[in-house]
Design a protein that fits this description.
- The complex is a heterodimer of chains A (about 110) and B (about 120).
- Chain A has strands at about 5, 10-15, 20-25, 30-40, 40-50, 55, 65-70, 75-80, 85-95, 105, 110-114.
- With about 110 residues, chain A is mainly β.
- In chain A, strands 2, 4, 5, 6, 9, 10 and 11 form a seven-stranded mixed sheet that branches.
- In chain A, strand 4 and strand 5 (about 40-50) form a beta hairpin.
- Chain A is globular, with a radius of gyration of 13 Å.
- Chain B has about 120 residues and is mainly beta.
- Chain B contains no helices and eleven strands.
- In chain B, strand 7 (about 60-65) and strand 8 form a beta hairpin.
- The radius of gyration of chain B is 14 Å and the shape is globular.
- The chains are: A mainly beta (about 110), B mainly beta (about 120).
- The interface of A and B includes residues 35, 56, 95 and 106 of A.
Chain lengths: ~110, ~120
């Protein structure tokens, strides 16, 4: 298994509170991604990173921000959580070697916003 | 309209059946086509990938890509209860280092149950 951990694994929070999810990898992969998974939508890309301090928006980035200050950590922040952000969040990583295609996924964080 | 469409099922088959899972897409720039398998309450894992059109076989699994029809399929032969999972198709326009940064576009996922 790729060394990807996510914390916390489960969280319940109230509307309007800030929430930060952490992804930690030990693979020294260059690329990191945050997805959310909801019934009927599959996995949708929130933000991604192509290097330390290099990040960009994905398909569903509104209400989310990210930071990557070192290779191994990618943080996802919900500045003011809303009920529509109740979801399962997955972090993924990918190496940069030629031809590398596979994204490796973490175990997920189940977030409930009440 | 979504870039990638996948029938969410659910699909329930008896053990030993041949399973066919499909996705259609609209973006002609997609070149890499993947199938991920996701067990309940786990992260997805790459099952197979193909580049451009053609077939690829790996044991009981066969992936097919028809770029002219913008249609991809995954076939599972002699299905087993351990194949019960959600299957997600995913597509990418470039490999690592390309301008897409390896971003994937996923289908909605098909829930498969193989019963003994």
């Amino acid at each position: 298994d790729a060394g990807i951990t996510q914390s916390p694994r489960h969280k319940v929070t109230e509307t309007g509170t800030p929430v930060t999810l952490r992804c930690h990898q030990t693979e020294n992969h260059r690329y990191m991604y945050w997805y959310r998974q909801d019934p009927g939508h599959g996995l949708r890309l929130i933000h991604y990173s192509y290097g330390v301090k290099d990040t960009d928006k994905g398909e569903v980035s509104d209400g989310y921000s990210v930071s990557r200050s070192k290779t191994e950590d990618f943080l996802l922040t919900l500045e003011s959580a809303t009920s529509s952000q109740t979801s399962v969040y997955f972090c993924a990583t990918k190496g940069a070697s030629g031809g590398a295609l596979e994204q490796y996924f973490g175990p997920g964080t189940r977030l409930t916003v009440t | 309209q979504k870039e990638v469409e996948q029938d969410p099922g659910p699909l329930s088959v008896p053990e030993g059946a041949i399973v066919s899972l499909n996705c259609t897409y609209s973006n002609s720039a997609f070149q890499y086509f993947m199938w991920y398998r996701q067990y309940s309450r786990k992260g997805p894992e790459l099952l197979m990938y193909t580049y451009s059109s053609g077939n690829k076989e790996d044991g009981r699994f066969t992936a097919q890509v028809d770029k002219s029809s913008k249609y991809i399929s995954l076939f599972i032969r002699d299905s087993q209860p351990s194949d019960s999972a959600t299957y997600l198709c995913a597509m990418s326009g470039r490999s690592a280092g390309g301008t897409s940064y390896g971003k994937l576009t996923f289908g909605q996922g098909t829930i498969l149950t193989v019963h003994p």
